[in-house]
Amino acid sequence: MSDLADKILDEAMTFEPQARTAYLEQSSEHDPALRDELLSRLQSAEAADEFFDRLSDLVFSSTFSDSDDEPPADEAQESVLTEGESILAHYRIVSLIGRGGMGTLYRARDERLNRDVALKFLPSGLSAERKARDRLLIEARAIAGLNHPNVCGIHEIAETPDGQMFLAMPLYDGITLKEKLRQSRLSIEESVSIAIQIARGLAAAHARGIVHRDVKPGNVMVSPDGTVRLLDFGLAIPIEGSLTNSASTRGTVVYMSPEQARGEPVDARSDLWSLGVVLYEMIAGTRPFHRGNPAPILDQIFHSDPEPLSKKGQEIPRALERIVEGLLQRDPARRFGSAAQLLESLERVLPSESGNSRVSRLMVLVAGTGAVVLVLLAFLSWPRQAETTLRPTDHSTTRNVAAYEHYVRSMDQPLIRTDSGARIALEHIQQAIALDSGYAAAYARLARLQIRIADGNDLEMSRRERLSVAEKAALKAVELDDSSGEAHAALGKVMKYTHRRPQAVAEMRRAIALEPSNNETRETLAELLVETGHPGEALLQARRSFELDSMSPTAISEVANALLASDRCDEALPKLAKLSSLRPTLNRAPLLASQCYAQKEMWPQAIAEMERIVPNGGPRADALLGYTLGRAGRDAEARKILDELTVRFRKLNDGAFYVALVYSGLGDRDHAIEWLDKSVDDLSFIADWMPGIIKDFSRDPRFSPIAHRLGIAVGTR
Amino acid sequence: MGDADQHVVNRLLHEMRSGNSEAFSQLLPLVYDELHQMAGRQRRNWDGDETLDTTALVHEAYIRLVDHSGQKWESYPHFLAVAATAMRQILVDYAKRKHAGKRGGGMKRVPLFEIESTLNSSGSIDEARSAALIALDDSLRRLEEVDSRQSRIVECRFFGGMTIEDTATALGIAPITVRRGWTNAKSWLYQDLTKTLEDAL
Questions:
Q1: Is B132's CB within 8 Å of A59's CB?
Q2: Does A74 contact B64 at a Cβ distance shorter than 8 Å?
Q3: Do B125 and A73 count as a contact with CB atoms less than 8 A apart?
Q4: Min CA distance, B83 vs chain A (Å)?
Q5: Interface predicted TM-score of the whole assembly (ipTM), two decimals
Q6: What is the mean pLDDT for each group of 10 consecutive residues in chain A (717 residues)?
Q7: Cα separation of B59 and A581, whole Å?
Q8: A333 burial class (0-12, 13-18, 19+ CB within 10 angstroms)?
């Protein structure tokens, strides 16, 4: 670890993630060794950063957090009602909707009035507190009399004979704002529209002297028709003797006003601060205060101003920025005086905004990742997972429903496993493009399918022709949407298959920067790193992918692949055994295990592994079996496979690499090198599943120039 | 904290600022006790069950011990550093108790992937948090053997939620040393924890 590297890395970490790689490359322009060290350490530092963020969220998320999805820890303590059970004679439980900070929610049938309702049972601790109960009753009655379109109504508040309090409420369709924010960025217009509706609800409640005390995205319900309703009014009741142990303010402090966080009495202006935090989050896409450990959040709430919205890298109307500033004033006296006053200012930002149920278009938003999100769009632009910039138009997705259906069909995994199925998928994606020629995700998909077809028995085109078609599609995808991770990943994959490995590595890194949670991309990068002689970083990437999805067989095999490449077969083998038992139909585990045994010259085991490969494992499996048989001294069987592969090559002009493999197993170095040379041209050389064998080749000096043309490393650094 | 205690605390903090390392170990039990009582009070106030709300604990500790006047005081970073260590102990003790209860006693090393899978499945978040805390604590002990300063930096930054500047002041080192140490420590812990995870595979 050099001081210089420490210094550059330290500086790089102060930049936005997207800019870091470029900075490192620029700082190490003339020093490839330094560059490699830096890139590897950057990956490691970023992985660690991300991990610690999650860890901190986990440790400091509360048991009764601001969640609508996390069950309380003391589940066992709460009695669970079962389907069909009757409550107070006229409610019959239909199903459990969820458990959260504010208790347990059921769907129930009101048999008296013949309608479905939501029943919310309050936490038993709250039910037991006399003072809290009294206050809750008073406030619930006030809300019940409110009847405002932006406030979730209350039919009644009652208690069971054993003293459990519950609320009966109307059942609404929709998702919480918290979920909505998780799904995508909101446009300015939509953010303002939601804020206006929240402000209307608050204004009505404040006029009756009711303070919400817990305004946060998890308490804002957005219905499919665009109506926004505030939930859980007045439930955040402070409990005697404790500063923070009020019912639902346990959990996050992010949305608390300074006076509320100090445990001081709050009034309506406290709700306005919280709305300011929500509005900031909707506009900026990030919260004004950090996440995780509450101490620094409180420190910020009490002592420092959030980063100005204008620095968040998008066009924000100045008037709107001033509104947020006006809401996030630490001194309540300097804040907006009332929700009504705020409403006036908000409505001036959007003069065309007419009301809460404005005419909206229902449309299917089609995300390139395959998730179909049904949303009500009041505005045409709806950026997909954009974290730093708001894109006016998004070519990753399509609004053509038919095109999207073809796209989805092209992704059918079981279908793609067979050669004929892959062709059907290809037809679908071609249809999708015919219907929407600006559909970037479809072009990326097209490129991948072409590669998939090239990997099987391709009877129509030579491998080179097929890959050149794939390259055109991938380039088109990038041209349509340069910020699409999928597009760059597809291009990287083409580069890898056409022996432009350094470029492939760069594309994959770019793709990961754009879409860090895409494991497939990360695993392909790990493979490339093995091929280009960086098994250490490959291991790190593979582990990270495993971290993100511990059930993923490809992540486990990628870890094993990197271990094999680092001569750590003893560590790789138990993982491969585990993988084989988890997924007996995957060929990759036995393929890699066989190479481990071959490296240890344990031939019976090496062959036994190859025999686990399912029939029709393709030419790659055949070739590896031939190689292993040859090395084990079973020449006649190896030669039979050699003949089949040679015939296949003559017929399809593909698979010189496989022939070379078997020659190498038979100890025929001269022929092996000759066929390896051919494999550069027919593009059949695939190193990623066989790091063990590449090492074998590396012992012959004649392999060096070939390796150079393939863009792979000879030996490892 | 009573007035007499407050007086002792202030004296010890003053000694800490002037470089007396003994002061830290004398302060720690005082702060630990205070936090411990706070946690106990919170639990009783709620349901009488064994649920520790980490956010509420830090929140209350922050308001009562650190920011009671709303003003930052001179010894603020030094105090935070002591509170960070105490917080680590409280949280890990609690996690171990919780975990031992769940598994019928006896501690075993928790593979990290369990944390992820607990989170992914419908398992309780409390269990995942216990597992994470125990794994992190183990790993932090190993780091302490290699580089005790880095492990202190992690305590301040992670458990105390301290800024780079406050950590630097409390530990008497330069902010840039804290920043680099924090980056390196996270990488070290991450790799150590993933190794645990890999071993468990």
A1: yes
A2: no
A3: yes
A4: 11
A5: 0.85
A6: 79 79 84 85 82 79 41 44 70 77 76 84 65 69 78 82 81 85 84 93 85 88 88 60 45 84 86 95 85 79 84 79 92 90 85 36 30 27 28 52 78 74 90 90 93 82 89 94 90 91 87 81 90 83 78 84 89 87 79 89 88 74 88 91 90 86 90 89 75 75 84 61
A7: 47
A8: exposed
